[in-house]
Amino acid sequence: xxxxxxxxxxxxxxxxxxxxxxxxxxxxxxxxxxxxxxxxxxxxxxxxxxxxxxxxxxxxxxxxxxxxxxxxxxxxxxxxxxxxxxxxxxxxxxxxxxxxxxxxxxxxxxxxxxxxxxxxxxxxxxxxxxxxxxxxxxxxxxxxxxxxxxxxxxxxxxxxxxxxxxxxxxxxxxxxxxxxxxxxxxxxxxxxxxxxxxxxxxxxxxxxxxxxxxxxxxxxxxxxxxxxxxxxxxxxxxxxxxx
Length: 243
Known about the structure:
Blueprint: H1 2-16, H2 19-46, H3 50-60, H4 62-70, H5 75-80, H6 82-88, H7 93-112, H8 118-126, H9 134-160, H10 165-177, H11 182-186, H12 191-199, H13 202-210, H14 216-238
Helix pairs in contact: 1-7, 2-3, 2-4, 2-7, 3-9, 4-9, 4-10, 7-9, 7-14, 9-10, 9-13, 9-14
């Protein structure tokens, strides 16, 4: 546990001492806020709850943000050679992977935390949102956390497979975007396969939870997916000792 906490603190320091981190936070909150206002205007005709507009805005920019956060987790360590120093320290592969993962997740949560106030700021200045469904809000942030956990673990694995940040960024973005386009892909395949893809489509999970409809199946899906990706990352890191 001590080794994990050491890697976690090291990773957090690397994030918060970099100006890129603060630019990422500001840009994400600005574009997500602008998208939220735009989505509210569009959804007035549809009649969806305002929480749907909020979480659509937050999820729309999630792949890019997570790519920026995760692409250098291991790729930069390999490029600079510091991965050798890290792996000779008294830490296990599990501690390295979980420490870096915890650092990336912590930074992402800090980045997204101010979005909680979007609804209340909008209600204060517009005067047109008399009621906010706190249940739907809690459900939306639950699925936001689970999807983010899965995407960060996927990005971490992609970063571990290469030493080039550009390659890692492309691989991270493509892998993270895949769950977001499964609903579109489900329409281009046979019905049985389409039903499976639609069941796994992140877009539908977001919309359901943002409306306050909580389903445990997507929660299990993202939790198991996160554990599997971290397991693969540990095995890939362990393979360095075999060569």
